[in-house]
Every structure is written in structure tokens, then in C-alpha cells.
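Aim 2, interim progress: modelling of the copper (II) ion-bound target.
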Amino acid sequence: MSAPAHDPRRRLLLGAGGGLVLAAVLPWPAHAGEAVEIGMSGTPTGSDVWFRPRGLLIRPGQAVRWVNRDAGNVHTSTAYHPANGKPLRMPEGAKPWNSDYLLPGQSFTVVFDTPGVYDYFCLPHEHAGMVGRIVVGDVDAAPPYAGTDARLPPAAVAGFPGVAAILERGRVD
Ligand SMILES: [Cu+2]
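Predicted structure of the complex, ligand included:
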């Protein structure tokens, strides 16, 4: 069976030639290494701080890179996990993370392989509601974690975007 004339890969092969094209037609490896950025920002006085986007949908195997875009504040990306002294709000068995303090301009990358919902926070700003949620792959639209949790600051609980909204929009700022 020959490839149809409109096959984009075939066009690529006809349009150029040699080893470079072979690399270009391998579909997935290049994309798997691309990290999606989540910025960490705040007002100069630190009175308001946030992750942007707060809610993000990715595919299993994709990487997320947190970058401190804030000239005046130090931030962390820290998973809600007993290893970080917090209740579990990520898939059981998945590896927890903690970036430690990121200075302005510094970044931290995590690859997410296990489908599910991952909640995380910023160590110095959890009480201010600096939290985020990452959805990996296809999950149930219903939040897997209780809406309220007395062990978390109220501002943190209020800061998680809904799973349904993340699934629908891909990102929630
Ligand atoms: Cu922070």
C-alpha cells in the first residue's frame, strides 16, 4: 500500500531530503521534551502572589517548568504530599516534588507520567492562596479531593481551579 499523495509526512520527504528530514518526521520525541511553563509572579510588596496558569491540562509524559518571573519574591512549587508534610492531593504512587526556593529567574521542571490530578503550593505563600492544579491525561471531571480540608489554609482551598474547567479550557489563569 503506498502513502496517499496528501500525506503530510510524504510531502515533507518530497520537499526536502537527507537526514534532517528523517529527524523531522519522527512525530513524538521532540514534543515530549517540550515543557509547558507556569510562571510564578507577584506584586513588588508580595501582597499578592500567584501561579499562572493556576490550572493546567497536560498529556502523560509531558513536562511542566515553573519559572520565577517575580523580581521581588522567592517562590516554590511543592506537591501536596505527606513527604512535604501535607495531605495527599496527587495520585497515589506518583513521585512528589519540591523545588525548594527559586530565586527570580530560576526554574524547576517536573515530568508527569501518571494520569490524575495534582495539587501543589508555594511554601512561603500557601496561606495567601498561592496554589495550583495540574490535570494529567483523561480524568474524571469530579474533583478527587474534598472541597474543604481543615488542614489547609482557607485561601489555598479556595485557590484550586475546578477540574471540569481545566478539562474544558486546557488552562485556567
Ligand atoms: Cu510564592
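Strands lie at 35-42, 49-52, 55-58, 62-68, 78-79, 107-112, 116-121, 131-136, 171-172. The two ends are 47 Å apart (CA to CA).
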